[in-house]
Amino acid sequence: xxxxxxxxxxxxxxxxxxxxxxxxxxxLAVHEAMMGLGHASADMVTEAIKEKGTAKVTVASxxxxxxxxxxxxxxxxxxxxxxxxxFDVNTFKHLHFYDQMNHVFRDVIDDELVSLIExxxxxxxxxxxxxxxxxxxxxxxxxxxxxxxx
Length: 150
Known about the structure:
Blueprint: H1 9-18, H2 25-37, E1 39-40, H3 42-52, H4 59-71, E2 76-79, E3 85-88, E4 95-99, E5 104-108, H5 111-122, E6 137-140
Parallel strand pairs: 4-6
Antiparallel strand pairs: 1-3, 2-3, 4-5
Helix pairs in contact: 2-3, 3-4
């Protein structure tokens, strides 16, 4: 898998098979929606699936699929400032920007910064713990009205 992309449908099917999960129409529809959305809540994914008409789903079933796939490492999850769970289709190392007015996540791809952080952390110790990774989220809001989403 490429460093900076989510799994395509064929790669996703292989991941499901590896975990002894069937490639159900609902799971495929969820992943297809996530590929288009990038970061999304169960509500957003459900709406995208219903608009496309690819599978019959409920918000609860979509949330369960997203949560299960996140537990398997297929997606990452993020809790927003408005206490809503968002899922991230990109599991490679990257930072996030969170727009706290519009409750939207965006990826920040900066391999140089990620390398600097990893290098710095490799020299640090946290007593009683092994550092396995990091999760950095930049938080901001639009500076002008024209940048408001929605």
